[in-house]
Specification:
By secondary structure, the protein is α/β, with parallel strands linked by helices. It has eight helices and five strands. The chain has helices spanning about 55-70, 80-85, 85-105, 140, 145-165, 170-175, 180-190, 200-210; strands at about 20-25, 35-40, 70-75, 110-115, 130-135.
C-alpha cells in the first residue's frame, strides 16, 4: 500500500531522495511482519521518535500527519512466507517491498535508503537495487526511520486488531501477537490458528504435542 505524492511535498532532484525504512513484528508468535518506508516532507513532522517510545495516542496522531504530508508505503509479509523464509529473510523482504512500493508511487529512485538495525537487504534480496545504510538505533536518531517505524507499527497493530475479531481468545488487540502469558495460555487451550507462525518455538512445540 502507498499514498500518491501529495502536493505539499516539493519535488526533489533525482537521486537526492532519502528513504527511511523500519519494520514491526519480528518477535510476535502470530501475524505478519510489516515494514514502513517514508520520504519526509519539509518541514518534517515534529515529535518523531522510535514508535516503541511513543504512546498509542501520539503514534496515531503522528501517523495521520505523516500520511497526509509525507510520502510513504508499507510492505507486508504473511505468516506462510515467514515460515518458509525465516523471520530474518521475511523482514528483508518486507523492507524491499515497502521501498519498491514507494518508488513506484513517486516515480523516483532514492539516493540512499536508511535502514534501522545492523543489516540491510542489500545482497540478501535480489530485488534490492538501492544504496543502503544500516543504522543501529536509527528509529530513535534518524527522523525518516522514526516515521517509518510509526507507519509500520500502526499498520501492523491494525491488522492484529482485525484478526482478533475472528480469533478473540489470544488477546491480539492488546498484545499484537507477542507471547504474553495470556497469549501462551490461550495457545495451549485453543491451539494454533492459521495466523500463528509455526516456525516459532512456542507454536512449533505445541504442534509436536498434538
Amino acid at each position: 500500500m502507498a499514498t500518491p505524492m501529495p502536493s505539499e511535498v516539493s519535488g526533489s532532484l533525482k537521486g537526492s531522495l532519502v528513504i527511511g525504512v523500519d519494520e514491526a513484528g519480528r518477535g510476535p508468535l502470530a501475524g505478519p511482519v510489516v515494514a514502513g518506508a517514508v520520504v519526509l516532507c519539509k518541514p518534517r513532522p515534529s515529535g518523531l521518535d522510535d514508535s516503541k517510545k511513543l504512546s498509542g495516542k501520539r503514534r496515531g496522531e503522528l501517523e495521520t500527519v505523516i500520511k497526509r504530508r509525507c510520502r510513504w508505503a508499507v510492505g507486508v509479509v504473511d505468516v506462510e512466507e515467514i515460515d518458509r523464509l525465516n523471520i530474518f529473510g521475511a523482514t528483508m523482504l518486507a523492507m524491499t517491498r515497502a521501498v519498491q512500493a514507494l518508488c513506484e508511487v513517486i516515480g523516483e529512485e532514492p539516493g540512499e535508503v536508511l535502514v534501522d538495525g545492523n543489516m540491510t537487504p542489500f545482497g540478501r534480496r535480489t530485488e534490492w537495487r538501492w544504496n543502503a545504510r544500516a543504522i543501529v538505533g536509527g528509529d530513535a536518531i534518524e527522523p525518516c526511520i522514526s516515521a517509518a517505524s510509526i507507519i509500520a507499527k500502526e499498520h501492523r497493530d491494525r491488522i492484529m486488531r482485525d484478526l482478533a475479531l475472528a480469533h478473540p481468545h489470544y488477546g491480539w488487540e492488546r498484545n499484537a501477537g507477542y507471547g504474553t502469558a495470556q497469549h501462551l495460555a490461550a495457545l495451549r487451550l485453543h491451539g494454533a490458528t492459521p495466523h500463528h507462525r509455526r516456525s516459532f518455538a512456542p507454536v512449533a512445540q505445541l504442534e509436536l504435542l498434538v
